[in-house]
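Before a colleague's protein record goes any further, I have to sign it off. My question to you is simply how this chain folds and whether the tokens agree. I do not need a full report, just your reasoning and any doubts. This is what I was given:
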Amino acid sequence: MGRGLNPAAVRAEDGRVVWDNEAYTFLEGPAPPCVNPSLWRQSGLVAMHGLYEVIEGFTRFEGWTCRTSRSSKVGPGSL
């Protein structure tokens, strides 16, 4: 969703798409009146993915679910 991996699709060995995070880009807009704004915001945050530098030398990978988050300290030129 703007800051993540591009393309945001995971493909099987045969080439078919098994996950496409682009399907959630509608969450970038404002919450419709029928949706709780807090839940809309949380859904948008969960949909973000990619490699983020938390502080200098410390990166965090945000995956497609909270269970795939990883953190590590890396040296210069590691990425």
